[in-house]
Design a protein that fits this description.
about 0% strand; mainly alpha
């Protein structure tokens, strides 16, 4: 009975926090956002079939990969430095915003040009799929749009405007879905047109977002004065992201190289089914990150970690209860040609739950301990797992082997920082 009362008290303390309330906002937004995203991929998968859907997914994966790598840690740096300086020195926070904005524009243009030039080489030599060349060129041209859109999202996060943060993402996903449905009724829903929609919508989201964020940062001068702090922090984040972004998508590229594109399409359907868990993780980290950045005492950190770990464990348990329903619905929603996605989904789903549970730990490393360097080493280990184990398992077991590789990588990404954080807390007592 005493244990039950303690759990009840802890639950009440979690529900009463600002983090829970703000997480609820981002969670509700994430659910709507995830539903719209799921509808997009369901319809596209049915419209295109496994082979064309596989081509589309490789192009989208490449777009998100180069966007993550080319970001150079700017998004993480914006949340940290703007969140930390907004109340103490607003003009300094604006300088970080302007510097981040300038970086995104310059790097985005450079990546788009280089990607357009080298896309045929990537398709022919690295992936051994010449039919991917055109779609890869289109995907590279959308990098700057992703950069600008993510800038708006991060500014809203840093300012803790979570209603706006949710609203703009729901709106852009709705627009994307609506355009694809219109294309279908016009008999124009081929993978190239759908890919064009995918890269155009972020530009729309960026211009709409300018009405939601303070634009005073554009008028501030001497933004280079904060460049040293910004790049010193970001260099470790950028190094980590460069490796982690590649390793987290390496399963798709190895599958593309070794397997038919139809198998890549089937694997991608399973991947999209776990997207809601990824988005929930993102919603929680969105709330946690600025709070971790502003946190001053280790005692507060421990209390905050306990509450958030209870939250993610509870969500994981709910996810396991829902999993059988999703398995039943796969052939009904996507079609019988995607029925082989079921076993892959189960493995990837557990992998995504491990990632969800690790979110509070990861955020504490980044924003409380300010030690992103740790994730550089972790990402190197993760890359070795995905590259070495992945090639072996995919060669022998196809897409099932790819799913088990992702699960192994997720467990590694959870255990190493968890041990580090625990040892750090014990050492400082």
């Amino acid at each position: 009975m005493k244990i039950f009362n303690k759990i009840l008290i802890l639950l009440r303390s979690v529900i009463g926090t600002n983090t829970f309330r703000q997480s609820s906002i981002t969670f509700v937004g994430t659910v709507f956002n995830g539903a719209l995203g799921a509808l997009f991929y369901i319809l596209v998968a049915r419209f295109l079939g496994p082979s064309s859907f596989g081509i589309l997914i490789v192009a989208i994966t490449t777009l998100t990969l180069v966007s993550d790598i080319g970001d150079l840690g700017t998004d993480t740096g914006l949340v940290r430095f703007v969140g930390r300086n907004l109340k103490k020195d607003e003009k300094k926070a604006w300088r970080f915003l302007k510097l981040g904005f300038e970086i995104k524009i310059i790097v985005g243009i450079a990546i788009s040009i280089l990607g357009f030039i080298f896309a045929p080489f990537i398709a022919n030599s690295l992936l051994a799929k010449p039919e991917l060349a055109t779609s890869l060129r289109i995907s590279f041209s959308g990098v700057i749009g992703i950069f600008l859109y993510s800038f708006v999202i991060r500014v809203l996060q840093a300012y803790q405007k979570f209603w706006h943060w949710s609203g703009i993402q729901i709106a852009t996903n709705f627009v994307r879905l609506a355009i694809v449905i219109i294309l279908y009724f016009l008999a124009k829903a081929n993978f190239l047109n759908i890919l064009l929609v995918y890269i155009i919508v972020p530009f729309i989201g960026f211009f709409a977002g300018l009405f939601l964020i303070p634009t005073n940062f554009l008028k501030v001068d001497n933004e280079k004065s904060v460049a040293k702090d910004f790049f010193h922090y970001n260099k470790w984040v950028a190094s980590f992201i460069f490796i982690a972004a590649f390793s987290s998508r390496l399963d798709v590229y190895i599958s593309t190289r070794l397997l038919p594109l139809a198998q890549v399409g089937i694997y991608s359907v399973a991947n999209q089914l776990i997207a809601i868990v990824t988005q929930i993780s993102s919603a929680i980290s969105t709330v946690i990150a600025p709070k971790m950045a502003a946190m001053g005492s280790k005692k507060d950190l421990i209390r905050y970690l306990k509450k958030n770990l209870l939250l993610v464990l509870g969500l994981s348990f709910l996810g396991i209860l829902v999993m059988p329903i999703v398995l039943y619905l796969i052939p009904l929603i996507f079609g019988k040609s995607y029925i082989d996605s079921g076993p892959v989904f189960v493995i990837l789903f557990f992998s995504s739950l491990v990632y969800l549970i690790s979110v509070p730990i990861h955020m504490s490393v980044f924003y409380y301990f300010s030690y992103p360097k740790l994730f550089l080493y972790i990402s190197i280990g993760h890359l070795a797992i995905i590259g070495g184990l992945g090639y072996l398992l995919i060669s022998n077991y196809g897409i099932i082997g790819s799913a088990f590789t992702v699960l192994a990588g997720s467990v590694f990404n959870f255990l190493v920082p968890a041990v580090w954080v625990i040892s750090k807390i014990k050492k400082e007592k």
